[in-house]
Write the structure tokens for this entry.
Amino acid sequence: MRPLNAAVPGALASLLRAAPLSPGKVVFAWRTAVGPAMDRVTSVRLDGGVLFVDATSQQWGREVRRSSGIILARLQTLLGAEAVQRIEVRTCT
């Protein structure tokens, strides 16, 4: 028997991939992929397979860029490999 916390990510990914792609779904997947701290200091928009991330500071922008490989893999697991193909980070100043 597997622990419940081992099954939840796979179940969540299955549910998300089955739902139509929408701005709300993208925001939910972002929040799930990056956690509450990074979610609070960023906003996201998906356009043509590119996820545009606006960070509130240069430090957070660097953190998103540094972690973009891991974040992209998580988003592709949650939304499907074709939904997000790359991440572009911009800093709001």
Observations:
- The first strand starts at residue 42 and ends at 47.
- The chain has four helices and three strands.
- The chain has a mean pLDDT of 87.
- Residues 3 and 9 are 12 Å apart (CA to CA).
